[in-house]
Amino acid sequence: MVLMLTRADKWLIGILLVVSLAGIGYSTIAYSASSSDVAEIWVNGALYQTVMLRAGYRQEFRVNVAGGYDIIEVEGRRIRVREADCPTQECVLTGWIEKAPQQIVCLPYRIVIKVVSSAPLDIDAIVR
């Protein structure tokens, strides 16, 4: 059986296809734009660095403070303290955080890492 389409049917199918693809594209862009969170790293009560948490992003850096250090690791949409030389190691034991308002606190060194909700930044990090 052969299906015969009129010219109007072909136009209707074409328009529906274009509208469907546009909707899929828009929803993909809207989802990816709203799905990146920000982690703020505070040292001694002052904002030290802001890091975007987004899929495919990796970063590792060291925060030096008087008496010690924390090594912070970012992997995709999550962040953790990978290594620290503080005596309690609670910041390391906290593990990965990825959703607001989760926090990691290194009390001996007064370092706080907190995930905040989506922000309109389109940069990787701000270092102060």
TrEMBL record:
InterPro entries reported in the protein's UniProt record: NusG_2_sf (IPR038690)
Domain of life according to the entry: Bacteria
Pfam families registered for this protein in UniProt: NusG_II (PF07009)
Protein name as catalogued: Uncharacterized protein
